[in-house]
Amino acid sequence: MLQQEGFQVSVFGRGLPALEAAAHQAPDVAILDVGLPDISGFELCRRLLTRYPALPVLF
Question: How far, in Å, CA of 46 to CA of 57, rounded?
């Protein structure tokens, strides 16, 4: 749906690769799942907000 509207979408099944990708390119928004296999979505959120305090996050 977001891609159809012209947004670039990156999908990750684990939190750590998402965190690594965010270190290379700042996300405009993060849509997270709480139950990730490596770190929780809440922990990923905390780490993202440490780096990007104004980042909108949806669970």
Answer: 10
Q: Report d(CA 46, CA 9) in Å as an integer.
A: 21
Give the per-residue SS3 of the chain. CCCCCCCCCCCCCCHHHHHHHHHHCCCCCEECCCCCCCCCHHHHHHHHHHHCCCCCEEC
Cβ burial, residue 44 (10 Å; 0-12/13-18/19+): buried
User: How is residue 9 written in tokens?
Assistant: 């979408």
Beta partners for residue 30, in sequence order: 57
Q: What is the mean pLDDT of each run of 10 residues along the chain (59 residues)?
A: 94 98 97 97 98 98
